[in-house]
Amino acid sequence: MRIASFNINGIKARLPRLKEWLEETRPTVACLQEIKTMDEGFPAEELEEIGYHSIWHGQKSFNGVAILADGVKPVEIQRGLGIDGPKEGEGEQSRYLEADVNGVRICNLYLPNGNPHPGPKFDYKLAWMAKLRDRMRTVWEEEVPAVVLGDFNVIPEDKDVWSPKAMASDALMQPESRDAYKRMLGDGWTDAIDTLNPRGGVWTYWDYQAGAWQRDHGFRIDHLLLSPELADRMEAAGVDKEYRGREKASDHSPVWVQVRD
């Protein structure tokens, strides 16, 4: 069973690239972030044509998450974490979707970026991470095989970025962001990519600016955290890096974990 995450950066603009990746790598489950479309604009029928059934949580122009499953319909468990956005009266943003697929709990997230730092957007990021950790505890208590995955917008350690100095002032690398991430791991979750690449140097994101892709100036912000029940079944994990180099690509590459059935 291959479980993957892909910040698609606009599903309408990247639909050909998405379908290409799905057909070439055939993940059992594919979690998307930044679909950037209202619910009614999600291309469910086109994805069903290649065998993927979907649930999604959309939002106009920004955010949005979806869970795709090969040949089966994801069984929705929860959408949203019950936390309003940083603007007064904004309501909740579309950043979290949870479902069961083939006996595995899939928790798909698009964590707030938090820039500029300091400020209300960074405060929102930390509050959102606290809410996420609360939800992760609840899932943990169910003792089900589970993965919490997506774009966390956190660079966990200096080894996860091409230049710590270049990113030192960014919200993705602040001590508070890193500490919140470490507390999740301290609860007993396994960072799949880091576990199999302890020396670091694995990137999942390359900015469109300043030739970041061509110079390999990237960092790791897309993560897969496994519960003990699923970590025991892990066989491999990696990044489909080549898809970042294709025409009209997302600025992220897909990440994945392979687990025994």
Automatic annotation (TrEMBL):
Cofactor(s) recorded in Swiss-Prot or TrEMBL: Mg(2+)
Family statement drawn from the similarity comment of this UniProt entry: Belongs to the DNA repair enzymes AP/ExoA family.
Protein name: Exodeoxyribonuclease III
Origin: domain of life: Bacteria
One Pfam short name: Exo_endo_phos
Domain Endonuclease/exonuclease/phosphatase: 4-252
Enzyme nomenclature, EC number: 3.1.11.2
Gene: xth
Class of the enzyme per the UniProt entry, highest EC level: hydrolase
Keyword annotations: Hydrolase, Magnesium, Metal-binding
CDD domains associated with the record: ExoIII-like_AP-endo
Single GO term (MF): double-stranded DNA 3'-5' DNA exonuclease activity
